[in-house]
Inverse folding.
């Protein structure tokens, strides 16, 4: 093992986050279906900033105060009281350019706040649409990395792990990786890197989104690398283009 | 999905156990390196029973009282104050036959006690040496199943997941499985089912056991299916042949 290389770990569920040292590491928040794909899409299409908040009421009151757009989901659908949800396809340039999005989601924004409470000081968000930008950033920073999977209500999910695997596949030679979660992530990714779209129907969350809400186009977008290749960097309570 | 079939879930870490309904399910405690391999070996070689306890002091005092053998490990080696550890190869027939083993380990016995606290009423232990017996039992019971991976100090490890995958590989058609952890487990197992011994050096726990303590023979035993094919069933505080 080359001890001069920074370490890389994959955390498979928010309930395991406390096991990892986030201090002085780059923490990548991963919620492929769909929060971190939506964040990438909105910033790529010119959103000024995205403010992740924990509660729907907070999203509504804050968006009124700053003339932003309140958005979010609960249990996979637009949260009650909101007009905009967590679909990356909602945030086209003609709607979101130069606006502020105030976003609350079941898993992704929750994990981001947990990372803050666990002393993370460099937080970015990642998903297939901005895979390249995430890899470029962590290579440039040359710090320890924790890939944090948002899962579903603390349960492990495979789409977030597949994205962690995609990152590891691209950057592994620059890190010391001694972590069975990362080994599983890269194995699963390399097994399915050429058939992600065909593999998607095997995922539990696919059924939640497609069978119940017909969101097949969302899934396609969320599994397509580099179609919204920006770097969402958390700074002073906001996600901005890094 | 055939709703008449019982469900099967895989729990990847003790820290996620509270997410699963253990009541009226068969809970399989999995600690491949090495507690549940050692339990299988000892029972297979004629141990009367195995009493899993949480603390070293408890193992010592209880074994004195009942004329049993106190054994256990902490951090991969024989626990301080004990003469016997957590190696399946220690418990040959000429040593263990008709004796009671009082065992305390870092992960496996801890998870068993957590399952009890989470209202599990049918608990068995599993590892490759008793893979067949575990599968036979859960097929016969025809109840919901939770495959509980002991991990390493709440971190995910791949050897326990591989065993969960081996069970799923054998029984999947008899269960409703809608769980990304199980999907990952069977994928990883089917990828490595024919080269488990060659794959072992990639696992973090392999290095803990082999590089530090030279326990290569333990690893070989723990990864060999059906060499100690008994069913350890938890009953009145003890693991006995089921």
């Amino acid at each position: 093992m080359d001890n001069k290389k920074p370490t890389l770990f994959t955390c498979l569920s928010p309930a395991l986050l406390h096991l990892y040292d986030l201090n002085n590491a780059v923490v990548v928040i991963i919620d492929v279906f769909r929060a971190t794909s939506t964040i990438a899409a909105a910033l790529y299409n010119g959103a000024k900033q995205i403010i992740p908040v924990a509660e729907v009421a907070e999203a509504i009151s804050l968006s009124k105060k700053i003339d932003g757009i309140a958005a979010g989901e609960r249990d996979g659908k637009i949260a009650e009281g909101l007009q905009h949800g967590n679909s990356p396809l909602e945030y086209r340039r003609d709607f979101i350019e130069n606006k502020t999005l105030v976003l609350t989601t079941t898993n992704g924004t929750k994990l981001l706040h947990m990372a803050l409470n666990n002393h993370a000081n460099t937080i970015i968000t990642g998903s297939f649409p901005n895979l390249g930008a995430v890899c470029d950033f962590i290579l440039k920073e040359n710090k320890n990395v924790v890939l944090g999977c948002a899962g579903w209500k603390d349960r492990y999910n495979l789409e977030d792990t597949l994205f962690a695997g995609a990152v590891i596949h691209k950057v592994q030679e620059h890190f010391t990786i001694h972590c069975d979660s990362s080994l599983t992530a890269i194995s699963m990714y390399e097994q399915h890197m050429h058939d992600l779209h065909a593999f998607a129907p095997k995922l539990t969350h696919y059924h939640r989104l497609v069978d119940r809400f017909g969101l097949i186009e969302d899934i396609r977008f969320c599994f397509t690398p580099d179609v919204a290749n920006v770097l969402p960097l958390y700074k002073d309570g906001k996600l901005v283009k890094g």
Observations:
- The domain at 8-241 of chain B is CATH 3.90.1560.10 (putative 2-phosphosulfolactate phosphatase).
- The longest strand of chain B covers residues 69-74.
- The beta strands of chain B are 8-11, 26-30, 49-52, 69-74, 77-78, 100-104, 122-126, 145-149, 232-235, 238-241.
